[in-house]
Design brief:
single chain; 509 residues; Rossmann fold; Dihydrodipicolinate Reductase, domain 2; 2 domains; twelve-stranded mixed β-sheet; six-stranded parallel β-sheet
Length: 509
């Protein structure tokens, strides 16, 4: 069965909180029991898996003592070249850490108390569940999941293995500035929220075009790298990252484009401001991959509209620059990667650094929040371990925010190409969406995209059953295709199948 589906092929074939214990005790480890131990000096002993990119930063924080109350004892990566390089860094610091290629072996190590995971997205949920089952506290990088269903399994696993900490790498949750700005909005000083926009205007160049499947470097265990994803050869080979690393973000089997890469941070803040629990009643997306033709599958331009009852949440992704030939990106109300919360009598902007500014509708600054506590998030993980309680980034909250990213992509994936005139007609009844459309058209024209001839993928307005975390109603063919898509539910391949847990709040799906 073919695994790398295009939108048209898929439709044609379909026809169609992370609760934490309050006490330290004994816990499960592959069916046995083992004490939650620590090193002689009381430090938490940390293992880090996925150390090529973000994981290398985590590793160094523990290696250099930047994070207090913990120390690095193990590292893990499926690429021997990466593992050898990071091991050399550790040796240089005088730390002879244990090394592993298979994360399961690291989880068996009784000298590891807690883990930090930063592998590709398609591994996040499974590694987290395995860690909880192995009796380890776990920090998992964003997004929590590759698809909606597996994210729910993480939530249920955290509820089952309550003696373990489950913590997510959405560092905005540690920003005191954002918390203060939300309190300001909730006080009613600038009126009710009219809409919230999440922005990910981040430069993304072409990854190049290959002519077929590419050879995997001999240093990489590609079966382990693929894990729960289909085992198919890579079809990319950028000069910077090669055929496997990083550019997986732009392929549906492993990532979900920038809405799940950078965008999950801003999505989480946007939903946090709204104060909405669970999933929205509807979602609709439009966009495409414009400006160049390359191997990547995900859109570099995407607008997703989530119909929350309190107010709409609109998320905008742009990978092209402000203008062809430039590197600078567009800004909306002074922000390129951030959140804008528009209220009746003013608005709030939240930047990628976690700071926030309140303005009136004449753009006069009313209040600034600049404690700059975003960097506390990793340290807060260790505090949560010692306290046996998660107060930042609980898994259920991040499950919902991660799922919004998947839902936006799913509307796009079951959409169809339409002229931009047809798109204009489709969004004309909603002022906020119409505004996004108009600005996207200006953006594309500035990048020499002929909007008269170039079509845009327009996704349907999909209704969501928040209880089942599935799509419902509407055209059966489209709804069935969305529900059957791997971004809604993928159980993995043996031996990397996602464990299924009985849900305490969501109906069987």
């Amino acid at each position: 069965m073919k695994q790398n589906w295009t939108r048209k092929e898929f439709l044609k074939t379909s026809l169609l909180g992370g609760g934490a214990a309050l006490i330290i005790g004994r816990t499960r480890i592959y069916g046995a029991t083992a004490p939650v131990a620590g090193s002689a000096n009381g430090d938490v002993r940390i293992g880090v898996a996925g150390i090529n990119q973000q994981g290398a930063s985590h590793m160094r924080d523990y290696l250099t003592g930047k994070i207090k109350g913990a120390r690095l004892v193990a590292i893990c990566d499926v690429d021997d070249a990466v593992l050898t390089k990071r091991k050399a860094e550790c040796n240089k610091e005088g730390n002879d850490v244990a090394t592993y290629r298979d994360v399961r072996k690291m989880l068996d190590d009784k000298n590891v108390d807690a883990v930090v995971f930063a592998p590709p997205n398609h591994w996040h949920s499974l590694m987290t569940i395995w860690a909880l089952q192995a009796g380890k506290d776990v920090y998992v990088e964003k997004p929590l999941s590759h698809n909606v269903w597996e994210g729910r399994q993480v939530v249920e696993a955290a509820r089952k293995y309550t003696k373990n900490i489950a913590y997510c790498g959405t560092q905005n949750r540690s920003s005191e500035d954002i918390i203060d700005a939300m309190a300001y909005v909730n006080s009613g000083q600038i009126g009710k929220i009219a809409w919230v926009r999440g922005l990910c205007y981040k430069p993304r160049d072409s990854i190049g075009k290959t002519t077929g499947s590419q050879q995997v470097p001999s240093s990489i265990d590609y079966d382990l790298w693929s894990g729960p994803a289909p085992l198919v050869p890579p079809h990319r080979n950028s000069p910077k990252y090669g055929p496997v690393h990083y550019d997986w973000h732009w392929f549906w089997n492993y990532g979900g484009g920038d809405i799940t890469n950078q965008g999950i941070h801003q999505m989480d803040v946007a939903r946090w401001f709204l104060g909405e629990k669970g999933l929205p009643p509807t979602v609709m997306s439009f966009g495409g991959r414009f400006g160049y033709q390359d191997d990547a599958e995900t859109p570099n331009t995407l607008v997703s509209v989530f119909g929350f009852k309190k107010a709409p949440l609109i998320f905008e992704v742009r990978g092209l620059p402000m203008k062809a030939g430039m590197r600078a990106m567009d800004k909306f109300k002074g922000t390129d990667v951030g959140v804008v919360v528009q209220c009746e009598n003013g608005y709030v902007t939240v930047g990628s650094n976690g700071g926030a500014v309140v303005y009136d509708n004449q753009n006069k600054v009313l209040q600034k929040f600049a404690k700059n506590t975003l960097g506390q998030h990793r340290q807060n993980y260790i505090k949560a371990i010692h306290a046996r309680k998660v107060t930042n980034a609980p898994v259920e909250e991040i499950h919902y925010s991660s799922s919004l990213c998947h839902l936006g992509n799913l509307s796009y994936l079951v959409g169809s190409e339409k002229s931009n005139k047809e798109l204009a007609d489709a969004v004309k009844s909603d002022a906020a969406t119409k505004d996004s459309y108009a600005r996207v058209m200006d953006h594309l024209k500035a990048n020499n995209v002929d909007i008269e001839k170039t079509k845009t993928v327009v996704g349907p307005l999909l209704k969501i059953d928040a209880t089942k975390e599935m799509f419902t109603g509407g055209e059966k063919t489209i709804v069935d295709a969305a529900n059957k898509h791997p971004l809604r539910k993928r159980t993995g391949r043996a031996p990397y199948t996602i464990p299924e847990f009985k849900s305490s709040t969501v109906a069987a799906s």
